Amino acid sequence: MNKPVPTILLTVTLLFAPRALAAPPVLTLMTHDSFAVSKGLLESFEKAQGLKLRVLKSGDAGAALSQAILSRSNPLADVFFGIDNTFLGRALAAGIFEAYPAPGLAGVSDDLKLDPSHRLLPVDFGDVCLNYDKAWFAKKGIAPPQGLDDLVKPLYKDLTVVQNPATSSPGLAFLLTTVGRFGEEGYLDFWKKLRANGVYVSTGWTDAYYGQFSRAKGGTRPIVVSYASSPPAEVFYSEKPLGEAPTAAVLGSGNAFRQIEFVGLLKGTKQVEPARKLIDFMLGPDFQKDIPLNMWVFPAVAGTPLPEVFVKHTQLAREPVLLTPESIEAGRRRWIEAWTEAVLR
């Protein structure tokens, strides 16, 4: 026969039971599939805050934003990272973010702060632009392109590969570059000339860069739409040491689009303070310093140390195309539809 446990003993047992058995609270970060950080970085945040961080990758930035909007009544996450300025207007119009003027914003230059309401805060940025294969042009004895205007010249026929703006983020950014450069009255004329000059349209960046670009095995086109940070990536990932990048970016005035990525606090989160701490962390020195060699873009906080490969092999556009979020939101669908009609049909 079992004897009853004395009440005083049961009370003491409960008081001193190990608390490790209780699961830590879970904070969810919704983001795009390209989100990447160094091993251990997020774990340091988890340890400092006493929680578990769940990273919910949800497709490209546009698809992830659509999911966040559709689930606004029952949010899938607490924080959203990865909306860029091509979708900023749509995100703000949906009203799914809470304002949070994080202290870290003080270190961010004003030209990256596109939302004065502080619902979406800049974390990183990069320039989408033309890249070219140095060796190909040297071997052929042809001058590499200096800007968009060169692409429609007979000398550059069948040399360029771009991405479809309806299915690709850099493809959309490049379309916006042409809108900003030539205006709504002239951008389609440019694209019609480019089509006549043999442009190849890929569905996405991977096929364009690793399939069609002449730097890739079997690739034949020495001009590709990519990023200003692609040359240092070529050096970093090369199997043998390289003294200089084998590719170069075209960054003259009006030839690149500055893409800015934002983070925001989703309305409806029940963990407001931990969510704010995550945003603070993403604007903090450890996360900012980690950005270049993982997501291959620039940290938004000025003065963040850059890795040597960035310092040696990367430049930024001095006068990139910058369209307002409102103008992009108003014109994006119309521009893509008109582009599709002019280039693909």
CATH superfamily descriptor of the largest domain: Periplasmic binding protein-like II
Distance between the first and last residues' Cα: 86 Å
Low-confidence region ranges: 8-14
Q: In the CATH hierarchy, what is the class of the largest domain? A: Alpha Beta
| Total individual domains | 2
Tally of separate helices: 13
Q: What string gives the helices and strands in order?
A: HEHEHEHEEHEHEHEHEEHHHEHH
Overall pLDDT, averaged?
93
Shape field: globular
Using DSSP, what is the number of strands? 11
| CA-atom Rg in angstroms | 24 Å
Largest sheet features = 11 strands, mixed
CATH architectural group of the largest domain: 3-Layer(aba) Sandwich
Tell me the strand percentage band: 15-25%
The residue fraction in helices comes out at 25-40%
At CATH level 3, the topology of the largest domain is D-Maltodextrin-Binding Protein, domain 2
Structural class: alpha/beta
Protein topology:
Layout: H1 7-15, E1 26-31, H2 41-49, E2 52-57, H3 61-70, E3 79-84, H4 88-94, E4 97-98, E5 121-133, H5 134-140, E6 160-163, H6 169-196, E7 200-202, H7 205-212, E8 223-227, H8 230-236, E9 247-250, E10 256-266, H9 272-282, H10 285-290, H11 292-295, E11 298-299, H12 308-313, H13 325-343
Parallel strand pairs: 1-2, 1-3, 6-7, 6-8
Antiparallel strand pairs: 3-10, 4-10, 5-8, 5-9, 5-10, 5-11
Helix pairs in contact: 6-13
